[in-house]
Amino acid sequence: MSLLTVSNLTKRYSRGGKTLAAVDDVSFHMEPGETLALAGPSGSGKSTIARLVLRLIEPDGGRIEFEGDDFLTLRGAPLRARRGRLQMVFQDPLAAFNPRATVARVLDDPLRIHGVASRSERPRRIAALLERVGLAADLAPRAIHEISGGQRQRVAIARAIATKPSLIVLDEAVSALDVSVRGQILSLLLDLQRQERIAYLFISHDLGVVRAVAHRVILLDAGQIAESGDARAVIDAPQSAIGKALVAAAPKLNRNRP
Amino acid sequence: MSRLRRFLRTPEALAGAILLAVLFAMALSASLLFPGDPQAIAGPALLPPFQNWSLPLGTDRLGRDVLVELFHGARTSLAVGLAAAATALVIGAVVGTLAGFAGGLVDEVLMRITDAFQTVPGFLLALAFVSVVGPSLGVVVVAIALGTWTGPARIARAEVLSIRERDYVAGARVIGMHPLEIAFREVLPNALPPVLAMSSVIVAAAILTEAALSFLGLGDPNRVTWGGMIAEGRTVLRTAPFLSIVPGIALLLTVLGVYLAGEGIVETTAVRRGLS
What we know:
heterodimer, A: alpha/beta, Rossmann fold, 10 helices, 36% helix, B: mainly alpha, MetI-like fold, elongated
């Protein structure tokens, strides 16, 4: 059984009387524990797909099946309950948290909402989550704006894994981090994937990172799938015009290759 | 601490804070310094100020001590001003948050109601409400709030419209938070600063409205109010102008104090946010 099956997904925006398809008839599927990358230039619709899959926006057409259920027909409380299985990590770890929040509150919310742990048990769970993502447990009372960007992204990952999801959407999750921190966060993500069999929908414009972490890749152009397949194969020898352009725009790839 | 120091370094803010502190001291000490009924007769009628040092500000038409009335009036003015402003801010923040966050039909309905309230002059609304329901302190508070909640509601809505597109609101939805919890726990607290910046103007306006209502005889008849004192003095304005002038000056200083202190708070918090 596939973990996620997206069929004929379409999302249109109308701007100035003209309709523009941000996502145009996109279909793909994901297996448990796999990393699927969505890559493409800005405006290619990769973030829109992420938001559609997360039900942050509603599609104009198509189907999304998640863990065997029609995900698009869920509403209200059943949808909120199911959200624990499908999490997200945002690009900017500062914008992703309420500016007034503390680390403890950020991690407490999912545990409370999904009834993962009782009130008395939660502080212990929060400490365990922090340790799981490589942070000290005494970070809990700190305010979000007091900790570093790398620590914040670790907290975001801790929040995402708090409800034991089967799929995490990583929307440019490492793009805003500086290079040394990026490597650490990526290895943390791979580590979590190995141990918990979490699937990642990895959205990125950085083909170097995609090649390093993704199993499969989908290259998007103007809302449509231009090319898809094994991540290394596609990036090493792109067939589509947009694939060639993207690879050509990242010259460091060739230098890094052994 | 540095914020307090910066606040106190601005001369206007300091002046406002001192005026407010004196007002609060008057309001709090009124029953300690002058226990008993402030409307009791204390001496000969229409005694001018600074004549008899046991009645330093003189007496009114019925021989009531003006100083005692002034102290007790401070309580009413302050209580009504703060309570009405708080009510207006709470109603405004809640309506604005719901309208901005829910969008669609809810937004339309709530904002048309806001429009309807805004097109009626606030003072007329308060006047009509008090004359229908009857004057008492609580009614006066509600009446003033009815005319002033629309400003905070509009500002809260505008702020919420920008906040609801932020990532952390999407993040709250992703973790399955209930929309009402998102609206009131994640969005509202972050939309409050510009709404609270209005509070000094609203408190000042509320104090003036209360005085105006009392002046027209629509204040709580069981309480001394400055507006009521001015109205009382009006009949003898030519022979004993101090009866209107004394509470008038108190009113002026209060509104000035509230406004200056409020501006000072807004200024210092704005500087703080600009620096961080």
